[in-house]
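Quick one: structure tokens for this chain, please?
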Amino acid sequence: MTKIVYFDVEQDEYAYLKTENEGKYDYFLTDRCLNDLEEIPQEYKNASIISCFTTSRVGKEVLEKFSDLKLIALRSVGFNHIDLKYCTEHNIAVVNTPNYGNKSVAEFAFGLMLDVCRKITRSYLDYKDMKTDAQKLIGSELGGKTVGIVGLGAIGAEFARLAYGFDMHILGYDIKENEKLKERYNVDYTDFDTLLEKSDFISLHTPLTETNRHLFNESSFKKMKNTAILINTARGEIVETQALYNALVKKEIAGAGLDVLESEETISDPDYLVDISRLNNTTLSQTILNNRLQQLENVIITPHIAYNTWEAIHRILETTMRNINAFEKGSVQNKVN
């Protein structure tokens, strides 16, 4: 019987995974993450399939401990936490769960945009402290404004639908133009610099690639309107943290809503408190800057939860099991390497 180990299992996922695996697989469920600081139990090491979320860090040091690994079934779209080079060299297939959070992430991104431009969280915190300075809480409307969407895949397209409903003018930047989005939501595709210069809001919905790391940097922010607001629910590494902080402090842009950060794991992962020496100079600098960003009144930061709805979690689990069942029958679905 095929042995599978599911890591990063949340309490509400146990029942579903038990039902889907019982009698079919020799399986283990654990809430532990996979990383090079945690010792892997001996009974896990000969698993032929492992499944994990983005909270695991699956590098070469971790992968070498598995003797018979054939498949990594990710419960996420992103796969930058996996050593794909090692997996390819050792014939380990890596599959992901695309399209589970199209609505969840798009709705959350839109919520961040509303929150920052209407100062909802700021007004709530002020009112909770018995402060009522309406002048400081003047916001701006979305209707009639221009929103630039970087990446118009499934999530970006859903964001465009929401923006169209709010009577916004939509600029799009992507390597491929979608004719349906032009027709349905009047998306106007343009080059990157034009999007930067004309957008009142910019929302990021592109996967992280080798070519778009730090796409938003010092030069990018200088081209944006000083009234512009940046929304990032994609990947933290698309935005250069130092450049973003400088742009906000210098008022080169007006605000930001961030669900992802560079080196965000140093905030959420207790392993870094156990072994602080893991922080190199770059990671340490980014961590300090992330803390500084959290102190700014024109910034909203959430802990990478844009995907986190009951509906999305169920879709993740369903797709994960479909991927595993297909692999057992000789078919590889949603392969990323």
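The first strand starts at residue 3 and ends at 6.
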